[in-house]
Amino acid sequence: MQDNRKPRYGVRRGMLALACALLASCALVSATPTAALALETAKCSAKPNGSGSSDVLGGQETRITWEGQASADESVASVSLTLPEGTSYSTDDARLTLLSGDDLMTRERPKTSVSSDGQTVTFALDEAAPAGSYVRLELYKIVFPIAGGDEQISGSYTLADGSAHDISDVPAITVTGTSFWDSASNWLKEQPWVQKWNENTFLRLFLNPPILVSSIPSVFQGFLMALAIVLVAFPLAIPFGFILALMRISKPRVLRAISGFYVNIVRGTPAFLQIYIAFFGLPLAGVQIPSYPLGVVVLAMNSAAYLCEIFRAGIQSIPKGQSEAARSLGMTSVQTMIYIIIPQTFRNVLPTMTSEFILLYKDTSLLAAVGVMEVVMYSKTIVASTGSITPYIVAALFYLVVTIPLARLVSGLEARMLGTEAAGRRRKKSLKEAGVIDGDHIA
């Protein structure tokens, strides 16, 4: 009998091998990555429109820029962006640009028609873009709602074959609510007299009303920083300066030499140079100090040298007869200094100390050169973004807010002291005429 089982077994083995090969092929094909149909968002941002800041303000015009990368097998025919409710816009100057090259510096402006439907703006290319194009859309005269918040933009696109897809991963744009100052600035821009005023180049450059108003909040922050510096630095300088003054008039030559050396060095070099040495020299030596405390220390040490001379002159202006009288009453030299000399010294030098405070407050502007965010630094930032000198005028007004009242206070103190001295001289003269005193002594 003939055995036919072997051929059947061979066929089965062949079919099994073929099935395994087919399964392996399917697995390999499924494991191979395929290009996804998706126009991926690379960038979606709005141009900052706040004076001297990177904020996007509601209620003011800005520009939206969206960029996306098409897949290698996608030929984009149109792109649509849907703006948040309450956002106004204009299709004037709206543009679509194709970027190419390794650095995306090669630009092409294909023929495009722009249309709008409600909150949706559509850019339709006359000819579909090459597959894998990098697309940039720009919309101008965008005005987000005044309330601000995270404004979400959505989008979609169509391909050359007519299929439509949604744009994914569009980031929200953070919009800052419009403040009173920004609203006032916008209102001024619309006023006919302001527009007429700004037609003059000189007036627009040095005193632009909208920029003046919008600059006030930022410069005010610098004003607070300047006050925080001087209100800490000056009280620190007073005891240091007084100790130096006592050293200057002391009998030991070493103390006089140390005090004199310090005073001559500090008063003989510009404060600007001292700030540079502290802010750039100390880091090179490995000493890292934050800007605010370092600025306070530098200005305090500078002011102490001037206060030293002020106190020294005040101490030496006290008649020696008072010290001799105190000694005759049994007071020690320390008691004489504390109870007799120091009170009169501070009373006599109070106007001069106030003038030194004014000078120190104005010297805080020098810290702008090393990046401390005070009045001048905030103004400089706004000037760089607006191209107008007006913020410097605002800074000057903030300085005058402090210096003018203090200058009047100095004048009043000086007048009062002169009046007191004149009254004393008149009283002394009348006592002499009455024979109560003989010369400087009681008769």
UniProtKB/TrEMBL annotation:
A molecular function GO annotation: transmembrane transporter activity
InterPro entries: AA_ABC_transptr_permease_3TM, ArtM/GltK/GlnP/TcyL/YhdX-like, MetI-like, MetI-like_sf, TAT_signal, YuaB-like_sf
Domain ABC transmembrane type-1: 223-410
One GO term of the biological process aspect: amino acid transport
Record's GO cellular component terms: ATP-binding cassette (ABC) transporter complex
Signal sequence segment: 1-31
Keywords attached to this entry: Amino-acid transport, Cell membrane, Membrane, Signal, Transmembrane, Transmembrane helix, Transport
PROSITE patterns: ABC_TM1, PROKAR_LIPOPROTEIN, TAT
PANTHER family hit by this protein: GLUTAMINE TRANSPORT SYSTEM PERMEASE PROTEIN GLNP, MEMBRANE COMPONENT OF AMINO ACID ABC TRANSPORTER
Name of the featured protein: ABC transmembrane type-1 domain-containing protein
Species annotation: Parolsenella catena
